[in-house]
Design a protein that fits this description.
By secondary structure, this protein is α/β, with parallel strands linked by helices. Helices cover 48% and strands 22% of the residues. Strands 1, 2, 3, 4, 7, 8, 9 and 10 form an 8-stranded mixed β-sheet that branches. A two-stranded parallel sheet has the order 5-6. The N and C termini lie far apart (95 Å).
Length: 289
Amino acid sequence: MRKNRLLITLFAFMLLILSACGNSDTKTNAAPKEKKAAEKPAPTEMILATTTSTQDSGLLDVIIPMFEKENNVKVKTIAVGTGQALEMGTKGEADALLVHAPAAEKAVVDAGDAINYKRVMYNDFVLVGPKENPAGVSGQDIKAAFKKIADTKGVFISRGDDSGTHKKELSIWQADTIKPEGEWYVSTGQGMGQTLQVAAEKKGYVLTDRATWLAQEKNLDTLKIVVEGGQDLMNIYHVMQVNPEKHNMVNSKDGEKFVKFMVDKKTQEVIENFGKKEYGQSLFISYTE
């Protein structure tokens, strides 16, 4: 009898141990489910069409990761000339645009292809030329400099890509009533960085935004700034989202977030300080409305 009671006690004890193990296994198996439920959702995707200067200057390498992290968004950046970027907007092939050709931008906004149009930042254009400066241009008067280059047939390298910089260059030739053509005028059809490289190789003059120049200057030892500072050389950048009412396939939610992000105080401070440590000056100046 006593022996039977002992066996019953041992059996009960074993059941208790097995039960505890079972509960432990249940908890262990439940943990991954809880972890899975807490996982971050997959990021959404948006397309940013922008000018090559924001890429060549290195600014996008700083601000895009900030935006992606804050909003759980993966940004596909397409850096082209402003004209091409705006065309992508009119076709609904991008969700947000960051460009620098105000007159062309206004036409896109007025046509209803873009909304939420905000001024973001500015820098300026500079005329860069060979250190020997064979055309003898200097000072702040960009129109006078262009005329002198044309008169002396100094080699001029144009982007020729319908970018904001190319549009600016053409407006200066038009103001001088000069039609640039001939062997002295070379069109690359390339972005700003590549066009500066061609100018260095051919020892030609080229109009560039200051940010790209500062970022590339160390690799352009045959060139220097020859004209800068004139009022005609201001370079303003705007951001906008593609209008979802006209282009219903766009990611309007993230496009709107990107516009808001670009004019946010924190982002503006990053823009204001970008380049100061490396170049001794800001590559872009914040300029929100």
